[in-house]
Amino acid sequence: MSAALLVTVLVAGGVYLILQRGLVRAALGFVLIGHAANVIILAAGGQEGREPAYVGEGSPSEGIADPLLQAFALTAIVITFALTVYLFALAGHGGDEDGSPSDAEPSDADEHTGTVVDSPPRGEPLGTHRSGNQPTGRTEGRAHA
Description:
Distance between the termini: 49 Å
Helix content: 40-55%
Order of helices and strands: HHH
CATH topology of the domain at 2-52 and 65-93: Helix Hairpins
Number of helices: 3
Largest sheet: none
Radius of gyration: 25 Å
Structural class: mainly alpha
């Protein structure tokens, strides 16, 4: 019963974080769901009262844990880690100012013309336009890498 409660809490927290706006929160949500998957897999194996999944000389052949479930759990750990690293890499390279002006939020648009307020004039390269003394935070190509 405690494994079911733990899985419920982990999945609920994971789904809540995935539905949040930030990519880091979504990555942490996937981590929680990955932990929930591991708990389900290990609970399905009935690990209580069983010996480790190692058969050697002198060890009993009955009452040992199923090694297949442990291999599934290890695979789930590796997949969760790979997905987490990938999402954190995406979050690290992204930023609030990345994207085209068409991706801007409605608060960034001029109400009268429907255009983005801080967009550069035509013919001027992206990242060089300044409104006042404030930089736009946009770069071209690999300038930020």
